[in-house]
Amino acid sequence: MSRPRPLRGSVVLLSGGMDSATCVALATRSSRPVHALTILYGQRHAREVRSSRALAARFGVARHTIVRLPLAPLLDSALTRPGRRLPAGRSRSGSIPSTYVPARNTILLAVALAYAESHRLAEIHIGANAVDYSGYPDCRPPFLRAFSRLARVGTKQGVSGGPAVRVVAPLLRLSKAAIVRRGDRLGVPWALTWSCYAGGNRPCGRCDACRLRARGFREAGSTDPLAGRRSGRAAS
Amino acid sequence: MSRPRPLRGSVVLLSGGMDSATCVALATRSSRPVHALTILYGQRHAREVRSSRALAARFGVARHTIVRLPLAPLLDSALTRPGRRLPAGRSRSGSIPSTYVPARNTILLAVALAYAESHRLAEIHIGANAVDYSGYPDCRPPFLRAFSRLARVGTKQGVSGGPAVRVVAPLLRLSKAAIVRRGDRLGVPWALTWSCYAGGNRPCGRCDACRLRARGFREAGSTDPLAGRRSGRAAS
Question: Of these four, A170, A215, B111, B170, which has the most CB atoms within 10 Å of its CB?
């Protein structure tokens, strides 16, 4: 069996949020080439596309690809169902909120794995975070380890003797405040990022993503350039 | 944390080929409801859609969903690139042919997992086969075990105390001849199935899929209703 060509560089899953923006900033310092992959899986709004485009341009990635997966009719989630109300913050400690999208990161990583193997890229970077997060199971270390194992045994690259595509989650064990501090040092343009789950032109300030973001900036002693543009109630 | 409602029934990944047709036939005898999911990932032709529709109707599945994923531009494979020639049979023993689609079954199972969890279905059935097959790594037992583990740790269902969605591959260790015999007993309408990788109206008889199919029928002592319609050379 012939050995495949070695892999190099990375593909970053770029949603346009704070975490993936910080991921791109980190990746451009540690690997080359850096590709960015924005995958729309049927979430309610496409505000993230604008952010991801602006971030990909700002960090000069070698290639930015946007993929639209028409999965909304299949998925049971408040993020993809037009009729479902978004929860204001988390309902109960320890519970998984209705914004959970079934198998979301499995789908994102699966497409990124296909992309990485097709483009001979060594790593998939994902901004998963298991500290200040919404409690989604597919953001936790056991999930990422299980996916790495899958990439080893389920790809031509992995079974052909070379190293398999690696999954890298550089923010996994950082608090949101630590991510803000890290991003500040790297010059992440927070004004270009987008976190809010709602589809408006301004962050709602009430959803789980807005609250986590606000707490991160507050605890880091930093200022969110989007916070001033918020309409309605402030995040608590 | 509240326990989710129990799961029941299955979703079958239905490509329209012999193996997935046999899978649907088996599933309709063992679980209820049975849903079918046909995922087009950018393969060259959509002949499979016709077959999968006809098979879903014949077996009376509760719901058949066809999803088109616009992944062809991302994937490096002879099956998804219009310009690439399909190999006639396998190039070398043990090698993975150019019809390999990077992370294909990872993507198919990821979407099926999202579907199963959204519809509260207990099992994903996949016609993966690791005996008379093309050597793709994502058809082998270690891959399927790794995906089952991923489903346990990466879904709300899996981490919430209930049983996780299970991956079932009933044909995994059967020869193609054994699949033909099993299908014959179950009344699988082979005339409705489609195996050929080429996009024509008749099976080419030369590609890997056509050869495996022909050998299966020959060794089972059965007759392929599509074989008579073949134009050009017979499969060896």
Answer: B111
Peptide bond just before A97 cis, omega within 30 deg: no
CA A95 to chain B, closest CA, distance in angstroms equals 6
Q: With beta carbons less than 8 A apart as the criterion, state whether A171 and A209 touch.
A: no
Peptide bond into B163 cis (omega under 30): no
Contact call for residues B169 and B23 (beta carbons, < 8 A): no
From the list B67, B140, B153, the residue facing A146 with the nearest CB is: B153
B231/chain A closest Cα distance in angstroms: 33
With CA atoms as reference, the chain A residue closest to B96 would be A156
**Contact call for residues A13 and A123 (beta carbons, < 8 A):** no
Residue of A nearest to B77 (CA): A118
The whole-angstrom separation of Cα A52 and Cα A45 is 13
Fold designation for B10-229: Rossmann fold (3.40.50)
Place of tokens 């859609």: B49
Distance CA B66, CA B50 (A): 11
Burial B61-96 (b: 16+ CB within 10 A, else e): beebbbbebebbebbbbbbbeeeeebbeebeeeeeb
Give A187-212 pLDDT, tens digit per residue. Answer: 999 999 999 988 778 899 998 899 99
pLDDT beyond 50 at B236: no
Q: Where are the domains of chain B?
A: 10-229
The CATH number of domain A10-176 is 3.40.50.620: yes
Closest residue by Cα to residue B42 from B65, B66, B18, B74: B74
Q: Are B233 and B198 in contact (CB under 8 A)?
A: no
Q: Write out the two tokens for B138.
A: 């994502």
Tens of pLDDT, residues B98-112: 888 899 999 999 999
B12 Rama class: left (phi>0) / alpha (psi -120 to 50) / beta: beta
**DSSP annotation of A179:** H
Which one of B107, B160, B165 makes the best mutation probe of the A interface by having the most chain A beta carbons within 10 Å?
B107
Residues of chain B neighbouring A94 (CB-CB closer than 8 A): 1
Rounded to 5°, the CA angle A87-A92-A96 comes to 70
Any CB–CB contact under 8 A between A111 and chain B?
yes
How many C-alpha atoms does A76 have within 13 Å on its Cβ side? 13
Mean pLDDT on B13-22: 96
